[in-house]
Predict the 3D structure of the following.
Amino acid sequence: MEFGKYNIDKRLVDTLKKHGYVTMTGVQSEILPRALKGESLIVKAKTGSGKTHSYLIPILNKLEKTEELQALILAPTRELARQIYDFARVLNDDYKGVDILFLAGGLQTSRHKERLASKPALIIATPGRLKALLINEDITSFKSIHTVVLDEGDMLLDSGFYDVISETLAALDNPTVQLFSATIPQKLANLVTLKTGVKTVIDIDRDDKTSDNVTHHLIDVHHMNRFEVVESFVKHFNPYLLLVFCSTNKEVLELYEFLSAKGHKIGLLTGELESRKRKAMFRRVRNNEFQVVVASDIAARGIDIEHVSDVLSVSFPFDLEFYFHRAGRTGRLDNKGNAYTLYDHDDLETVEKVEKLGVKFTRLVYKGGAFSAVTKRISRKKALTPEEKELNVKIKTAVAETKTKKVRPGYKKKVRTAVENVKRKHRRKMIKKSIREQRVERYKAEKRRDS
């Protein structure tokens, strides 16, 4: 379906066409007719589905050139809010040219106050800065707002913004409220229901948590150094734009340093970057200055980085819901993409959990510096005994203590030696334990004979 088929201002349709937006995505065709009518909505939609335009187009279509604040869009992070603002500005500049204000941390409060005095038609903000400027200081009236959008609702809630959102909605008179999220937090959904009466969740994903445009792959690394595997991956597959995910900020920084030391030009997206540096990094990423970008889950969540050809997870995330957020960074709109995850036998239980959620993996193995396809499915081994679990923990500890950030000559030999020492000590311990148990059994047998 094309945008021109709906009750959208022809000038806006022409502007969309000018920027390459002609045919709607599935989420847009389902949401736009309702949003254009001013309905309040609770929408569950996966990343990369085109949901931003589902609420942005109806808002721009309705905005008037008056000195009143008419709409508010809240996003959990500065980067996501900025991305929405950039979308809105591109369309608005060629359309109505109404005043749009971007509110987020990193800019001086005094500058924001000056801009607010001009009474913008639309504010796109993070909740923290909105609270500081609008609620605490009561700079402008909320009474004229007709539409509020809560984008990435689960992240808004996880970031501790529930009270800000609740206070904001309480200040409004019968607004249209639209909640969009990959997963719907019940607490936030209840708040929207209380304010608007809407109860039904529009589930665009339904039972499909992944995009059909994304192919999922597992790479068995056989307990090898995963940072080395990442570097080999880049050399072997030569991706157009690779987004590499780590589960902790510490690991993100270590991998960044490792790949940089190998001579690669690497982008870095982590919440630990200060606002100014993070903004500069996003600009460089969008300008295609990097082939590889290393990121944390929170830093990249919801951000639309164009032309990500491949996603690589160094390990599965702690929260498996983030697996789908990671995979959703590629294969966006009509583009194809690949989501790779490094794993070994210790991860097989997690692999099975992800497969039960509907993911179908192709399998690769990394061995001898090469990647090759495998067709045989690796099954989980039988449950380990407590002694076997103890040995595995000791082996992992020994490998971690031997591992250094920079791979030095003789590194693999040192790791093998450390592992063998652990196994030797463990065997001695098991032999001594067996001897003690035999002595106890002999003692018990003798006591039974004497009685």
Observations:
- The chain has a mean pLDDT of 85.
